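Take a sample.
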Amino acid sequence: MATKDNYTKSLRFSVDTDTKLGKLALNFGYSKFQFFNQMVEYFHRTKKDPADINDELLKRTLSRNHDAYTSFIKTQEKVLLIPMHQSVERMIRNQEQIVKQFNGQVLSANKELLKQQQDQGQKFKDTESLMKLIYEQLQSRKKLKEQFLQLFDGYVKNRESIGAFKAREREELTEQFRKQITDL
């Protein structure tokens, strides 16, 4: 701490200035003496002019820093952002081409699949028609066999009823039976 010998200098200022100094020191939690020493140290270190309220030095420093930041951002934009943007655009175009080709292939595959399904459906219809025709022919054949058996049974009964010695009647019966079979 400072001794009384270090306090050889005194400073005179108005009561109004003393009031302002007291309020400022109280706001920052210093004594008037400590606050005054801090002010002097601040202006000594920063080389600022206390009369310069607008703080031109600060403005120039901020302006230089702003220019430096702007230059840095422009450099980053040229080095990183623009190439990255171009790469992303190129990638998007490539993806669009891939999707377009993929969609084209899928569409053509779907058309081919649909055509095959339609062909298969037509084959099923044709097979069904053929099966109906075969069934009808089988039914017709079955009926034909039944009619033939009826004719044959009638022939056998008639032949047996004619007897053994009537050859001419047997011959007529055989011809009649052949004609009935031909009519089937």
